Amino acid sequence: WIIWKLKSYDEKLLRYFQNLTLTPLNVVNQIKYRYDIEIGQAKRSSIKKIIEKDDTCMNKTLILYISKILKSNNSLTSVELCDGWYPVKAQFDAYLSDYLRRGRIKLGDKLVLFSPELIGCPKDGCSPLEAPEEMFLKLSVNSTRKAKCFAKLGFLKPQRPVIASINSIKANSIVGAIDVLIERIYPIIYMEKKPDGSKIYRNQKQEDMLLYSKMIDIEESESNNKENRVENFEKKNFQTRIVTQILKIRICDFKYKNNYSCLVTFWQNGSDIYDKISEGERIMLFNLTANSHNIKEMECMMLQMCLWELIE
């Protein structure tokens, strides 16, 4: 990687400077510099911090370059990414693999990655030079962009997310972040999962009527002891019923002026989010997954590790 860097300097800057940078003396000086930084000053690169589990790439942006193209498996391609110090394997999704085959992404290109997923890393971390074969970064086209050739490798400073516009979102892929306006907030839907696997959907009124009818049945069948009635009600209704509150909102881009909009489904804490947001507010959503090919009817689902933030 040292030779790669010095050779790149020669190719890009030779017309401005007469002296070559790729010389044995400069290579030795670069090796000594890295020894002083990593051993003498105890500073580590971004990939080493992530693999050793002293830092995380979740909800963080980092810049790496493609140092090697490894193999293609069906529609997915594995590559080697590097921060100039250590390498790490990465797996492109179908869209990024297609860009690689078409030449839109090529060897040596720098990529901006937001919140890539590290898979196969030991629980306590390990050295990048002793990383297992099955460890890799999983990349999504919606959270990956090409970087400028002069962009500094490693964690982006200051940190900011890679924001995707709605019309650029690809289906069946993770969306790192979107900056949107809330157009419409739909009523909460209650999904009850039965023991046989079937699902029943109810609105707020139907859910309240069901709870009320069950309360009446319990009051008629149990004793007049109030404490027993409440205890039995909680046991029979809240422990046996598996109910999920589903909230859907329609959003549009805040910065990009277009006519595209999409639905976002919150599968957790629907009532809490419903009380904290309102139509017309600006909101930033992180870690979504898109599940439709029709962009005008695109539906994004909030993942288990999703985040959202209101912007004043």
Automatic annotation (TrEMBL):
List all membrane-crossing ranges. none
Q: Which residues form the Breast cancer type 2 susceptibility protein helical domain?
A: 1-41
Q: Give every BRCA2 OB1 domain span.
A: 45-156
Q: Which GO terms describe its biological process?
A: double-strand break repair via homologous recombination; regulation of DNA-templated transcription
Q: Which InterPro entries match?
A: BRCA2, BRCA2_hlx, BRCA2_hlx_sf, BRCA2_OB_1, NA-bd_OB-fold
Q: Which PANTHER family match?
A: BREAST CANCER TYPE 2 SUSCEPTIBILITY PROTEIN, BREAST CANCER TYPE 2 SUSCEPTIBILITY PROTEIN BRCA2
> Which protein, by its recorded name, is this?
Breast cancer type 2 susceptibility protein
The organism encoding this protein is Brachionus koreanus
Q: What is the lineage of its organism?
A: Eukaryota, Metazoa, Spiralia, Gnathifera, Rotifera
